[in-house]
Amino acid sequence: MIAELYKAYLSSSGICTDTRKIASNKMFVSLKGPTFNGNDYALSAIKEGCSFAVADESRPEFQDNKRVFVVPDALVALQELANYHRNKLKIPFIALTGSNGKTTTKELIREALTSQYNCHATSGNLNNHIGVPLTILEIDQNTEIAIVEMGANHIGEIAALCHIAEPTYGLITNIGLAHLEGFGGIDGVFRGKKELFDYLSNSNGTLFVNLDDEKIISASESAEGITYGSSPNAIYCGEGKLNDGFLHVSWKRADQPKYNHIQTSLSGLYNFSNVMAAVSVARYFGVSERKICQAIENYSPINNRSQVIESELSNTIIVDCYNANPSSMSAAIHNLAAMKSSNSVVILGDMMELGESTQFEHQSAVDLCRDLGVSQVYLIGGHFAKIEALGNDKHFDNVDIARKFIESNPVKSSTILLKGSRSMTLEKLIDAL
């Protein structure tokens, strides 16, 4: 069945799983969710221009329709189709995962490699059991290197994604406090992320290892790999510093005397390891030092990830609110403090999926702001409502209430950090600051 399905896929213009995004000659895959059943839309997808549909219910209207493939499970068929296609592609597959910085690192790697190769990388953060297959099925015969981002919130998910994508290279950005509820604690996070290195080690793949993260070193289990970081023992070593609030990176190969310099448009010293990951991958694949530096310098962060915005109220806004966990929130607060602003403002939204650690981690974030001398702290969400002794910190139940307060009490001439989980939608505050 997969061979027959693959033939139909090759004759189509790609995969579609949403009837709101139908394009001519696409293959529609009938996925299911808590509030929808793609089988309900299979025939209408064909009427609207799709060449084929994949369904997993034996409905009378699907019988004898040569443009509808009925399979036991549409999601499994999508994953198997992606793996079948992947094995037709004899190109390097670079997989990356980690608690923080996955998407930024993926974007930096893509920028550096694209200066010399035809690359295809995960769009946005389509990094789960649906997004990874869709990414693979977007790769065509002109692609020379594939870059696949992998996300997970339970043990076993990265291993499953590896069996679909079969990566030949991989890196873990870091192993921190993310999805603690699903992983069952930090030990579970370690085992879950380590699944990528385990797969690569067992399949003779190549690891890129961040020597600045002890957990990643442990996860690599002394396997030979390409190392990077601030350590002089790393193959690609360097240092990062803030230059007017933006990350500046000096780097070189350890056995060479001359440093290369990159002035990025990224906020935060925590992005140093992300830049070094891109440097090590690109140099491994033979991209020149000049092209790497130029590509990373030209990269501008988007989608509320480490963006810096200068507002009409003379505020410098660090927009880092695409997502949040205790590790990334701590790093962002430390970064704000390192900027040594005379008036620093932290606006924090709730962090999700922390399980039993929820109250402790939210309290820790507020305590850190106080310890580092942040001028003003605004807290948004139900989790922050439960911390002890708000003091001078202001709390709001949701972002809309916070916005109304800020509009009535403008913040001016300040350095402002916006940090919170995606569901908190802190970006709604930007044009009020």
Strand content: 15-25%
In percent, how helical is the residue content? Answer: 25-40%
Distance between the termini: 56 Å
**CATH superfamily of the largest domain, called what?**
Mur-like, catalytic domain
Give the overall form.
Answer: globular
Determine the mean pLDDT: 91
CATH topology annotation of the largest domain: UDP-N-acetylmuramoyl-L-alanine:D-glutamate ligase
Which CATH architecture of the largest domain is right?
3-Layer(aba) Sandwich
Give the helix/strand class: alpha/beta
Number of strands: 21
Order of adjacent strands in the largest pleated sheet: 8-9-7-10-11-12-13-14-15
How many separate structural domains?
3
Low-confidence stretches: none
Q: Over all CA atoms, what is the radius of gyration?
A: 23 Å
| Number of helical segments with 4 or more residues | 14
Classified by CATH, the class of the largest domain is: Alpha Beta
Main beta-sheet annotation: 9 strands, mixed
Describe the protein's topology:
Blueprint (H helix, E strand, L loop, with lengths): L1 H10 L3 E2 L10 E3 L2 E2 L2 E2 L4 H6 L4 E4 L12 E3 L3 H13 L6 E5 L4 H13 L4 E3 L9 H7 L7 E5 L7 H9 L3 E4 L7 H4 L2 H17 L3 E5 L3 H7 L4 E5 L6 E8 L2 E8 L6 E8 L4 H13 L4 H9 L9 E4 L5 E4 L6 H13 L5 E6 L8 H14 L4 E5 L13 E3 L2 H10 L6 E5 L14
Parallel strand pairs: 1-2, 2-5, 5-6, 7-9, 7-10, 8-9, 10-11, 11-12, 12-13, 17-21, 18-19, 18-21, 19-20
Antiparallel strand pairs: 3-4, 13-14, 14-15, 16-17
Helix pairs in contact: 1-3, 3-5, 4-10, 4-11, 6-8, 8-9, 10-11, 12-13
